[in-house]
Amino acid sequence: MKQLAITDIRASNLKVTVDELKRRHGDDIEVKAIEMDVANEADVDRSVDETIQAFGRIDFAVNNAGIGGAAKPTTDVTLAEWQKVFDINVNASITCLVLRTHVS
């Protein structure tokens, strides 16, 4: 049986994805859906812990989170808007990689 943990900031997205995985793979897949914000260090820690608790280990992980930011000229972007983009697109990758090195 395949085992897969998936995360998303929106529970509704998780439900759609789990439903599609179950439709395609039936009883041959076990999915652990975890709602989390990739820019939130505590959420990342929790998702790693929940995955290990559910499956015993993590063999590999993919961080595919990213946002485009505000649709306006760069000179009009606020620092808070830029920080959100940077936190999700850059810092989250490091958070998921560096802080989770205990996973093997």
| Element pattern in H and E | EHEHH
Which regions contain 5 or more consecutive residues with pLDDT less than 50? none
**Annotated CATH homologous superfamily:** NAD(P)-binding Rossmann-like Domain
- CATH topology name, in short, is Rossmann fold
Helical coverage, percent range:
40-55%
Query: Roughly how many Å is the radius of gyration?
Result: 16 Å
Portion in strands: 5-15%
Task: Give the structural class.
Answer: alpha+beta
CATH class: Alpha Beta
Question: What overall geometry do the principal axes of the alpha carbons give?
Answer: globular
**Quick one: how many beta strands?**
2
Structural domains: how many: 1
Major sheet: order of its strands?
1-2
The N- to C-terminal Cα distance equals 20 Å
Helix count, DSSP H or I runs of 4 or more residues: 3
**Known CATH architecture:** 3-Layer(aba) Sandwich
Major sheet: size, sense and barrel closure? 2 strands, parallel
The chain-level mean pLDDT equals 90
Q: Key features?
A:
104 residues; alpha+beta; Rossmann fold; two-stranded parallel ribbon; 3 helices; 48% helix; 13% strand
Report on the structure:
Helix 1 links the parallel strand 1 and strand 2. The chain has a single domain (2-98), classed as 3-Layer(aba) Sandwich (Rossmann fold). The radius of gyration is 16 Å and the shape is globular. 48% of the residues lie in helices and 13% in strands. The chain is α+β, with helices and mostly antiparallel strands and 104 residues long. It contains three helices and two strands. A two-stranded parallel ribbon has the order 1-2. The two termini are 20 Å apart. The chain has helices at 11-25, 41-55, 79-98, and strands spanning 2-8, 29-35.
